[in-house]
């Protein structure tokens, strides 16, 4: 078995079976913070993150989840046990006035829009999301900001020790990574007295540990598609059933336009659960002719997310008795999908400002650094990649109008898990990249100082093999597109053992390589080659070996150094995007 090493973030459920009572009047273990300096706080935070990483889901745990798909109550009961051991009851969560959101794509963006709108009304907001891009603290936000290192450390150790203290002969486990963070988020939001909590589902809905929430104020389902098939099912109808698992009796739910078959599943589940389900009108229905709504997140696909967010925010405000929530407007719209339409209303100034000022890193994000422009989008399904390509092409076209001189277009890609990489890469071929670069979701070769991005569930050997397979698929697609015979060579191997230092992975040469693709052993080395020292904010700590001996790397370096513009699309994985952001914008780690 290979060595485990830093990569990304764990994020799924496990289970235990036990019952334990906790004295809710007992004081939580005390964790004084009398005279901490910032440096001490950072050390304590790193210790907390390292301990948290020991709870990451391993392969056997994921297999257990798959086997238990038919019995969601087993997983939810386990989560309730953990919650009680932590000192909370299910009823306590009702006080959070939760907005619960799921979907295949766009659920995080929908949550971000919703939270930003409601914050504009002077409400203290909590926001729980996953995965994180740079630091695990990003998953738990108050008023749009990740909780501070001090708060993270305090609540982590308080919860960790409480769970340790409640172990006994029948209940010896700690909750896995994602469950632990979910419980921690509930504690943070309750103790910090937020007015509401926007909670993004981890995976699916019915079996997700966030689904222990009994009485959300409102629920939402963003666009559906195929993803996480080993856990959620291999058809969009099965996935729709999983997503509909967050519906609750009497709790309004909203969704966006969906294909007919999954929409029927949502409708049937809503009927069985006595949940009023509404279809969101498109964003155009809310716009005045001379005043289109401006969104802080780029891309046409964000419009359906914004439309859903408007309905979620307005419904929450209405159910909580708030005034000034937007007057209804007369409309002749009718639903074409056998669901009642949600109301069309005039968005308030606060709502418009919320949509415009929404920020959500790593989703259709652009960083301009001199000659380099980084286009960052964590798309990882076929439909989200298609949306990302549309956004990228439009953005590049606008940029090219002001460029004089040679341009170089680069793809930086990785995909993990069970995703159909060949399908994603085939779509990306249409962008006509000059170079395709592949690397694992590993910022540096050494995990030291990189605890927030550690993952003990995947070995380095496995990561590199996957990157080499991705490269081979790209080469085959490129040559087939050019009308040549597919590259029949075996998957390339590392030039030396993968753990012997920073490497450029070079393919064997039974025949010349006809496509410009490279594999690097970490994100830092990939960025170093792409940027060629031209990004003033990127300062690599080490250099990859073998660059001068690799024909594609050496010839490409010349073009990159001389180009007037370098356009880089980073996509395929939110974890990859997070690693790139960590290196390009060090302030995100502070």
Automatic annotation (TrEMBL):
Mg(2+) 1 binds at residues 130, 200. Monomer. This is Folylpolyglutamate synthase. One of its GO terms (cellular component) is mitochondrial inner membrane. It comes from Sarcophilus harrisii (Tasmanian devil). Pathway: Cofactor biosynthesis; tetrahydrofolylpolyglutamate biosynthesis. PROSITE patterns: FOLYLPOLYGLU_SYNT_1, FOLYLPOLYGLU_SYNT_2. It comes from the Eukaryota. Catalyzes conversion of folates to polyglutamate derivatives allowing concentration of folate compounds in the cell and the intracellular retention of these cofactors, which are important substrates for most of the folate-dependent enzymes that are involved in one-carbon transfer reactions involved in purine, pyrimidine and amino acid synthesis. It is found in: Cytoplasm; Mitochondrion inner membrane; Mitochondrion matrix. It catalyses: (6S)-5,6,7,8-tetrahydrofolyl-(gamma-L-Glu)(n) + L-glutamate + ATP = (6S)-5,6,7,8-tetrahydrofolyl-(gamma-L-Glu)(n+1) + ADP + phosphate + H(+). Its EC number is 6.3.2.17.
């Amino acid at each position: 078995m290979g060595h485990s090493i830093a990569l990304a973030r764990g994020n799924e459920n496990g289970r235990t079976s036990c019952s334990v009572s906790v004295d809710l009047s007992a004081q939580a273990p005390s964790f004084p913070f009398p005279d901490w300096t910032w440096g001490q706080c950072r050390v304590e935070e790193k210790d907390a993150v390292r301990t948290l990483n020991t709870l990451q889901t391993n392969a056997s745990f994921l297999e257990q989840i798959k086997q238990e798909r038919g019995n969601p109550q087993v997983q939810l009961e386990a989560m309730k046990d953990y919650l009680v051991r932590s000192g909370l009851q299910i009823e306590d969560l009702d006080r959070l006035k939760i907005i619960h959101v799921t979907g295949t794509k766009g659920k995080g963006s929908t949550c971000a829009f919703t939270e930003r709108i409601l914050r504009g009304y002077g409400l203290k907001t909590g926001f729980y999301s996953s995965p994180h891009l740079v630091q695990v603290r990003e998953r738990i936000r108050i008023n749009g900001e990740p909780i501070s290192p001090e708060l993270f450390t305090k609540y982590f150790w308080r919860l960790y020790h409480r769970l340790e203290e409640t172990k006994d002969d029948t209940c010896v486990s700690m909750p896995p990574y994602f469950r632990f963070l979910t419980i921690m988020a509930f504690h943070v939001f309750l103790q910090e007295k937020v007015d509401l909590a926007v909670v993004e589902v981890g995976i699916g809905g019915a079996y997700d540990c966030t689904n222990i929430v009994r009485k959300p104020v409102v629920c939402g389902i963003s666009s559906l598609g195929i993803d996480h098939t080993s856990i959620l099912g291999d058809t969009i109808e099965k996935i729709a059933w999983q997503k509909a698992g967050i519906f609750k009796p009497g709790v309004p739910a909203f969704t966006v336009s969906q294909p007919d078959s999954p929409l029927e599943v949502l409708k049937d589940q809503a009927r069985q659960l006595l949940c009023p389900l509404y279809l969101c009108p498109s964003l155009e229905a809310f716009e005045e002719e001379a005043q289109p709504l401006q969104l802080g997140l780029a891309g046409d696909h964000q419009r359906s997310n914004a439309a859903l967010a408007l309905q979620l925010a307005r419904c929450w405000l209405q159910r909580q008795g708030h005034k000034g929530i937007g007057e209804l407007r007369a409309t002749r719209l009718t639903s074409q999908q056998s669901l009642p339409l949600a109301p069309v209303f005039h968005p308030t100034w606060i709502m418009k400002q919320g949509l415009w000022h929404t920020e959500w890193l790593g989703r259709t994000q652009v960083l301009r650094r001199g000659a380099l422009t980084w286009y960052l989008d964590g798309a990882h399904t076929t439909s989200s990649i298609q949306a990302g390509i549309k956004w990228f092409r439009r953005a590049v076209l606008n940029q090219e109008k002001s460029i004089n001189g040679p341009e170089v277009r680069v793809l930086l890609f990785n995909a993990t898990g069970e995703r159909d990489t060949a399908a994603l890469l085939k779509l990306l071929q249409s962008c006509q990249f000059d170079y395709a670069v592949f690397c694992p979701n590993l910022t540096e070769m050494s995990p030291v100082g990189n605890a927030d991005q550690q993952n003990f569930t995947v070995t380095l050997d496995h990561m590199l093999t996957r990157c080499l397979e991705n490269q081979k698929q790209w080469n085959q697609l490129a040559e087939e597109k050019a009308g040549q015979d597919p590259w029949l060579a075996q998957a390339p191997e590392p030039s030396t053992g993968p753990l012997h230092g920073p490497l450029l992975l070079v393919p064997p040469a039974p025949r010349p390589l006809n496509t410009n693709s490279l594999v690097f052993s970490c994100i830092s080395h990939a960025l170093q080659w792409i940027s060629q020292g031209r990004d003033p904010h990127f300062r690599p700590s080490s250099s990859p070996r073998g660059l001068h001996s690799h024909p594609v790397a050496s010839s490409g370096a010349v073009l990159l150094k001389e180009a007037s513009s370098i356009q880089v699309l980073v996509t395929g994985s939110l974890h990859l995007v997070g690693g790139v952001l960590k290196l390009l914008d060090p302030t995100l780690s502070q």
